Amino acid sequence: MNQKNSLGLNKCFLDLDNPFELFQKWFEEAKKKEINDPNALALGTANKEGIPSVRMVLLKGYDKNGFIFYTNLNSQKGQEIKKNPNATMCFHWKSLLRQIRIVGTLKQVDHKTADEYFNSRAYESRIGAWASNQSTVLKNRDELLNSIEDFKKKFKDKNNVPRPEHWSGWNLKPLSIEFWLDGDNRIHERLKYILDEKGNWIKSLLSP
User: Fold this and answer.
1) How many other CB atoms are found less than 10 A from the CB of residue 91?
2) In contact, 4 and 189? CB cutoff 8 Å
3) Do residues 105 and 61 make contact, with C-beta atoms less than 8 angstroms apart?
4) Segment 12-27, tens digit of pLDDT
5) Residue 1 has pLDDT above 60, yes or no
6) CATH number of 11-118+170-206, picked from 2.30.40.10, 2.30.110.10, 3.90.1150.10, 3.40.50.1100
7) Crossing angle for the helix pair 141-154 and 123-131, nearest 10 degrees?
8) 121 has catalytic annotation
9) Would you list the domain boundaries of the chain?
10) Looking at residue 63, what is its pLDDT?
11) Quick one: which of 63, 82, 62 has its CA closest to 71?
12) Residue 2: what pLDDT?
């Protein structure tokens, strides 16, 4: 018989008051077991009309202040976020049969944080940030490839490629975080943390 925590959930939910601590535990397990991109997440945004859009992005940092990813600020998601900062993230780790859903608001990271991450990327990725007008229509594939070659000529020094002004990161500050574990016969286990007005995390069990 599986051990349970104080709420009667599987022991993997632990007994923690801070959801960031539980996220860290689950994320570390995912990095050991998930075959590809354990930091992949589905990011949901909506435009000013409320029409939703979802795409996969990669988590590039997290702490008590939120969860960070990077993108072209002029892309579809970048334009949507500027007009409607409400967003949601969903991690799904099939290898662990676990899922985490995060709801909150997005805020652009500071220039220093964006610069540090940009400079840690491979040369080709930094060039790609300049060459690609993300989400815009291409006449053909050669248009993009030619742009890449042009920027390689412009930035020949692989150690000195400046970050484009149109490229930065977004930090999702969570208002709620839900942890989900697959259960037999679809009797899943769910634990939700909600941030109250005083800045305290309140835990609740959810029906599957």
Assistant:
1) 23
2) no
3) no
4) 999 999 999 999 999 9
5) no
6) 2.30.110.10
7) 120
8) no
9) 11-118+170-206
10) 95
11) 82
12) 67
CA atoms within 13 A on the CB side of 33: 13
Query: How many angstroms separate the CA atoms of 84 and 108, rounded?
Result: 13
Closest by Cα among 193, 200, 191 to 8: 191
Question: How far is the first Cα of the chain from the last one, in angstroms, to the nearest whole number?
Answer: 21
Question: What percent of the chain stands above pLDDT 70?
Answer: 99
- Can you read off the two tokens belonging to residue 167? 């490229």
**Which residue type occupies 84?**
N
Contact between 61 and 170 (Cβ < 8 Å): no
Detail the DSSP E strand segments found in the chain: 40-46, 52-58, 61-63, 66-72, 86-93, 98-108, 167-181, 189-195, 201-206
Give the whole-angstrom CA distance, residue 73 versus residue 134: 9
